[in-house]
Amino acid sequence: MHGGPILSSVKTLGQLGGVFHDQKAWLATDPATVVYTVQWQERVPQETEGGLFWGSTRIEAGRVGDEYFMTRGHFHAKRNRGEYYTTVQGEGMLMLMDENRLARVEIMFPGSLHYIPGYTAHRTINTGDKPFLFWACWPSDAGHDYGTIAAQHFSARVLQRNNVAEVVMEEPEAAEK
Known about the structure:
By secondary structure, this protein is mainly beta. It has helices spanning 23-27, 147-152, 172-176; strands spanning 7-12, 34-41, 52-59, 63-64, 67-68, 83-89, 92-98, 103-108, 113-116, 120-126, 132-139, 156-161, 164-169.
């Protein structure tokens, strides 16, 4: 990104404890490994109703065990706020989960555009062997609720099976534990 003040956040494997299902594989990885980087502009103050933020996310290629590198995922703090993603390079998936824990994925590829409706948790997954880059636009008053996902997780995961990305739904008993 160029122009204006650019904010940045880098997430390493060490900062993503509890995100990947295979904790033994996660513990065996280098905690300094970069998983994803987010850059964004805040042209208006946070919480400005009617304002927009613009940014990009780059997810590196890699896996923890059989699970692809991904973002932490979140709901918006103001749950009714939507968001747009458009893919620039690489391949991946956008996982969406409603408040009833019904999950689905959309395939992301260069030029694809994805609308994330309000009341929907979202996470992105790099299913390719190169960095995965997408742009995002969201309301400046949306905020982020990472706590709900940290406590309840997503109800589906994307795992590599026979060299193919496969969506695996959570068993109902797992959600109750």
